[in-house]
Amino acid sequence: MPVSSLAGQREAVLITRVTNWCLNNCRIVGQFGSSQSCYNLPLPKPTVRGPDASVVLTARWNTLSTNEQAEAFPRVAPNFVAEIRSDNDSWEYCHNKMLVYMVDEGIN
């Protein structure tokens, strides 16, 4: 979804920082991505989400088979997610959005 230029800049900075951290910690990182990297969260009702930035650690990523890792939306909850809050989003909205990731095996 298109965002304002300021939000786009904040997202670019966030993604750069997360990417740099992942590249500097490549032994523990299995997968990382931007909002275009979506996950099928392991919830009772299928829920596909694409956070602005995400990290799945190797220990969790490697529980998936090679075929599962290659799926467009792997069925895994990231260990870390970050979202850029838009000026139009309330804190409650953002809080509820983040709670979706906190499934049993979700973010820490």
What is the compact description of this entry?
The chain has 108 residues and is of the alpha+beta class. The protein is built from four helices and five strands. Strand 2 (39-41) and strand 3 (47-49) form a beta hairpin.
Strand content: 15-25%
Tally the beta strands: 5
Largest sheet: 3 strands, antiparallel
> CATH first level: which class?
Alpha Beta
List the total number of helices. 4
The succession of helices and strands, N to C, reads HEEEEHHEH
Q: Could you name the key traits of this structure?
A:
single chain; 108 residues; alpha+beta; tt1808, chain A; 3-stranded antiparallel sheet; two-stranded antiparallel sheet; 4 helices; 35% helix; Uma2
Can you give a write-up of this model?
The protein has helices at residues 5-24, 58-61, 66-70, 91-99; strands spanning 29-34, 39-41, 47-49, 53-57, 80-82. With 108 residues, the chain is of the alpha+beta class. The chain has a single domain, classed as Alpha-Beta Complex (tt1808, chain A), CATH 3.90.1570. The strands form two sheets. It has a three-stranded antiparallel sheet. Residues 2-107 form the Putative restriction endonuclease domain.
List the helices and strands and how they pair.
Blueprint: H1 5-24, E1 29-34, E2 39-41, E3 47-49, E4 53-57, H2 58-61, H3 66-70, E5 80-82, H4 91-99
Antiparallel strand pairs: 1-4, 2-3, 4-5
